[in-house]
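Hello again, I could really use a second opinion on something today. I've been staring at a protein lately and its backbone has me curious. You're getting the sequence in one-letter code plus the fold written as tokens. I'd be grateful if you could look everything over and explain what you see. No rush at all, and the record is pasted right below:
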Amino acid sequence: MTARPDGSWGWPEGGAVSSHIIKPEPLGNAGVPHLIQTEHWAMTVASAAGLGAAKTTVESFDGRSALVVARYDRTPDGGRLHQEDFCQALGLDPDAKYESTIESERLGSRLRRLVSVAADRALDPQAFRVDLLSAVTFNVIIGNGDAHSKNYSLLLGRHGEVSLAPLYDTAPVMYLDPRYKGTGHVINGRTNIDAVDEADLVAEARTWGLAPGVAQSVVRSVMERVWYAAHSVALPPGAEQVLDKLEALWVRRYWAV
């Protein structure tokens, strides 16, 4: 969709550039309850914690709530920025968006392979690794059970320089429905959020070329900032259990604040 100057919305046609993505709330009993509202909460928490995240609002269209996401792959004057999700960057079929342990054992983790093809093309390879570790850490602790290879992207500059796209499609689905616990990517051999600890995040990042001390500092910094941000951003009515379950994860993991 495209935002108009008068506050209304237009449907872009004939190759016109859209400015926002509209994600309507599922109809009836389909999907995860409070998904739209808690995704906005998670994006707000990420921003409050100092992490790059897509800008979102929740609006109503004919009585139906929808998440409105400002496109980060646009220039200030409305032009397009080239982006590739991790499936595209690694030459994977879109249907293969979830990484398996078999693939990881055979080829190495997808995250490590992505770093190997992207980091050296970044203006600051070390910062790229830190940004990726921050994003992966956030998705783990926020309970995003759908952080697959199409929910991470790269931005490519005019001269081929690479940067990590802001967080998007991040929702605390594990805290809303316990069936959704997958990490999407293999993290130090783990595929279940409940099994991923600080040591796993550090060990995974070491395979990308981050020094252990740097990786540990990044993980702990993100944990601390997200803890305080999550307690400062109000949850939507009916989804208060998200914070309770996030706190329970902290207790189980003995994570410091």
